[in-house]
Design a protein that fits this description.
The complex is a heterodimer of chains A (316) and B (218).
Chain A (H helix, E strand, L loop, with lengths): L1 H28 L42 H4 L14 H5 L9 E6 L5 E4 H5 L5 E8 L4 E11 H7 L8 E6 L19 E5 H4 L5 E6 L2 E2 L9 E3 L12 E7 L6 H5 L23 E4 L6 E2 L7 H4 L13
Parallel strand pairs in A: 1-10, 4-11
Antiparallel strand pairs in A: 1-2, 3-4, 4-7, 5-6, 5-10, 7-8, 7-9, 11-12
Chain B lengths: L16 E2 L4 H26 L5 H30 L1 E2 L3 H25 L4 H10 L1 H18 L3 H7 L1 H7 L1 H16 L5 H30 L1
Parallel strand pairs in B: 1-2
Helix pairs in contact in B: 1-2, 1-3, 2-3, 2-8, 2-9, 3-5, 4-5, 5-8, 6-7, 8-9
The chains are: A alpha+beta (316), B mainly alpha (218).
């Protein structure tokens, strides 16, 4: 058992390294990736310049929303990633400046294994799997995205959080040269987000490295981003360079900026309006009419118990 | 000379120059320029369907240009005075009505495309969302000004017409507040509009004060 796991693990690490090298090569050369020959079905929206991720377990029914995925071109051209500018089109314009390899993550705080950890080590924690999730932005638009990633719980357990670790927080890269939007202090960089440890350990929470079968585009948070589908999109922090375990609730960027508008929990809740706009409905990108927003973004059966006894109107 | 060309006489001593473009041509040039954002929107719709969230794009574009054209129309009188340009006063009405047209498109996009004519949702927004209330107030002011922009109204209302049409500053101010209220973090675009409006208002106040001191002196 142990031996098999180890072997698979190494095998996957090597595969990932190869994948990473291919990614850099393809991007630098500015030509379509060589593995395009194996790409299979000719989806017109597929961005062939991003390497395809291999060795991915298909989404199990429990983690697959039975709804039409958003067009890939929409999901990769309409982004909130203020590090590259505040216009929705800015990230797709400027994110090519970010270098995603090599990439390491600082792990610190209440952990038995602090240190600077290469991305490949983090991805060694579990096999890659596909998750088709709803994504709901606090701005009342939404999508359905096939992500590829690994359960956050597997990664966090790998770092052996201490008994004091009640929260985990994340930080995005800070480098105004790579991220031109950081030349202005729209946000007090770095962008920070955090979860209660039980939220982080929930099987729906993942760290994503890919979408639509290929590695993440930079504007969607390459090379490593959080995806917590029952919370508003701003919780799912992109381009993570730090994972910090703490006893106290961490500061989070939008909560710091306007705490009456963006709570720490930020669970999708059609009953609790943003002070300036209603949260009861949303527009799915690509659709004309708005649709009703679901409690916990449709994941209430899975996650509502995490908040038993809490007043969700006050702890929004 | 119709009343709407009497927004203030050109200060004596400044050499007045006539723009070497016939008045009716000025009018059509202004309309053509004011139509450019709408044409650009149509062009982008054909090219890429206005991207991932077309309704949002149309809402933002029409709203921004409604405000911008109102600001340009408010800049006509200062331009006349500073540069001594005569004969451009009628452009105020042309550009103001162009701005109102964008405001109509903005309101229609919101009510029909965005809210899907869901009267309950519209009523809730109007009753509970300050940014919607302020935006609607700005629209109602512009509507009042638009329907009283005819020569007949000017004749009938006389002096009161001038007073009434000063409300365009209030409409612009409400539109700027409406814009501010919608922004999450990056206030730059709204600040640009606010600064321009403040400058135009300041110019007005300076003239009023100066005119008062002139009358007292004489």
């Amino acid at each position: 058992m142990q031996v098999t796991d180890e072997a698979t693990f190494l095998n996957r690490r090597q595969l990932l390294r190869l994948g990473a090298t291919a990614a850099v090569g393809a991007t630098l050369a500015g030509c379509p990736a060589a593995e395009e020959a194996t790409a299979g079905s000719g989806d017109a929206d597929t961005d062939a310049t991003r390497p395809r991720l291999t060795d991915v377990e298909p989404a199990s029914p429990a983690y697959r929303v039975d709804e039409e995925p958003t067009r890939e071109s929409d999901a990769t051209s309409y982004n909130n990633f203020y590090e590259f500018g505040t216009d929705k089109k800015d990230p797709a314009r400027h994110a090519h400046r970010m270098r995603t390899r090599p990439w390491s993550v600082l792990v610190d705080g209440e952990t038995a294994k602090p240190g600077s950890v290469p991305l490949e080590t983090i991805l060694g924690a579990a096999p890659l799997e596909e998750r088709i999730y709803r994504f709901r932005c606090v701005e009342t638009w939404s999508m359905v995205v096939p992500w590829i990633g690994i359960p956050l719980a597997a990664v966090l357990k790998h770092f052996e959080p201490t008994s004091k670790a009640r929260y985990v927080s994340f930080e995005t890269l800070v480098d105004p040269e790579q991220m031109p939007g950081q030349k202005r202090r729209v946000i007090d960089w770095p962008y920070r987000e955090g979860l209660r440890i039980d939220e982080a350990m929930h099987p729906l929470s993942i760290l994503a490295v890919g979408m639509y079968g290929r590695v993440l585009p930079n504007q969607n948070g390459a090379p490593l981003r959080l995806m917590v589908p029952w919370k508003y999109g701003f919780k799912s922090i992109k381009s993570i360079v730090r994972i910090h375990f703490s006893e106290k609730q961490p500061n989070t960027s939008w909560n710091d900026l306007a705490s009456d508008e963006y709570g720490f929990y930020a669970n999708v809740n059609p009953e609790v309006d943003h002070p300036r706009w209603s949260q009861s409905r949303e527009r799915r990108l690509g659709e004309f009419r708005k649709r009703a927003t679901l409690p916990f973004n449709g994941y209430a059966d899975e996650v509502a118990s995490l908040y038993a006894g809490m007043d969700l109107r006050r702890q929004y | 000379m119709p009343a709407w060309t009497c927004g203030g006489s050109i200060r004596p001593g400044k050499s007045a120059s006539r723009i070497p473009v016939p008045r009716h041509l000025q009018h059509w040039i202004a309309i053509a320029v004011a139509a450019l954002p709408a044409l650009a929107l149509g062009f982008r719709f054909v090219v890429d369907g206005l991207g991932a969230n077309p309704i949002e794009d149309v809402t933002h574009t029409t709203g921004e240009w409604a405000l911008r054209l109102i600001l340009v129309s408010l800049a006509i009188t200062p331009a006349r005075r500073f540069f001594g340009w005569r004969g451009i006063a009628p452009l105020r009405r042309t550009l103001g009505l162009a701005g109102f047209t964008y405001a109509c498109a903005h309101l229609a996009t919101w009510g029909i495309l965005d809210r899907g004519l869901d009267l309950a949702a519209i009523a809730e927004d109007l009753g509970e969302r300050p940014y919607v209330m302020v935006g609607m107030a700005a629209f109602l002011l512009l509507f009042t000004l638009a329907i009283t922009s005819t020569r007949r109204s000017i004749r009938r209302l006389g002096k009161r017409w001038t007073t009434l049409h000063r409300a365009v500053y209030a409409a612009a101010l409400l539109a700027v507040v409406h814009h501010f209220w919608l922004i999450k973090a990056d206030y730059r675009p709204a600040i640009v509009h606010a600064v321009i409006l403040a400058g135009l208002l300041a110019a007005r106040i300076v003239w009023i004060v100066r005119r008062k001191s002139d009358t007292q002196a004489s």
